[in-house]
Design goal:
The protein has 135 residues and is an alpha+beta fold. Helices cover 26% and strands 45% of the residues. Strands 1, 2, 3, 4, 5, 6, 7 and 8 form an 8-stranded mixed β-sheet that branches. Strand 7 and strand 8 form a beta hairpin. The longest helix has 18 residues.
C-alpha cells in the first residue's frame, strides 16, 4: 500500500451476510454518544451504534444505508461494524417504514400505562432512518 493512500478497510457484517467490505476514504454513522466520521489512522476505539444513516465515501462516490444498531471497532487501518440490521435504500419498503413511524409516534403520543417508551423511541428512530435513507 502506498504511504499516501488515505483509505482503510471497512467491513460491515450482519447476522446473515457480509453487507459491505472494501477500501474507503471515510465512513460516518451515529453512535449513542453522537455522530462520528472516521478516516484512516483514527485512534483505536469501540462504540455502540445508534439508528441513523451510514455514509460511505469511496473516492468521489458516496453511498448511504440505514444502520439500526450494533457495535463498531475502529483501528487505524480498519473499521468493523457488527450490525443487527443495515439496509441499502433499494432494500427498504417505504410504505412499511412510514406505517412503523406512525405507530411509534402514536405510542409515544399516547404514553399509555405499560408502554415501553424506550422501545417506542427506538422504533421511531429506525423508521426515520429507513425513510431518510430512501430520500
Amino acid at each position: 500500500m502506498a504511504e499516501n493512500d488515505n483509505k482503510f478497510t471497512l467491513k460491515i457484517i450482519t447476522p446473515d451476510r457480509t453487507f459491505y467490505e472494501d477500501r474507503v476514504s471515510m465512513v460516518e454513522f451515529n453512535t449513542v454518544e453522537g455522530e462520528v466520521g472516521i478516516f484512516r489512522q483514527h485512534i483505536p476505539m469501540t462504540m455502540i451504534v445508534a439508528p441513523g444513516i451510514l455514509t460511505i465515501t469511496q473516492d468521489n462516490e458516496v453511498k448511504e444505508a440505514a444502520l439500526h444498531a450494533g457495535f463498531a471497532e475502529v483501528l487505524p487501518e480498519q473499521v468493523t461494524i457488527l450490525a443487527e440490521i443495515i439496509e441499502w435504500p433499494t432494500e427498504i419498503d417505504v410504505d412499511r417504514a412510514q406505517e412503523a413511524k406512525e405507530r411509534a409516534e402514536g405510542r409515544i403520543r399516547e404514553n399509555a400505562p405499560g408502554t415501553d417508551m424506550k422501545r417506542a423511541e427506538m422504533s421511531l428512530k429506525r423508521a426515520v432512518a429507513r425513510i431518510n435513507a430512501v430520500k
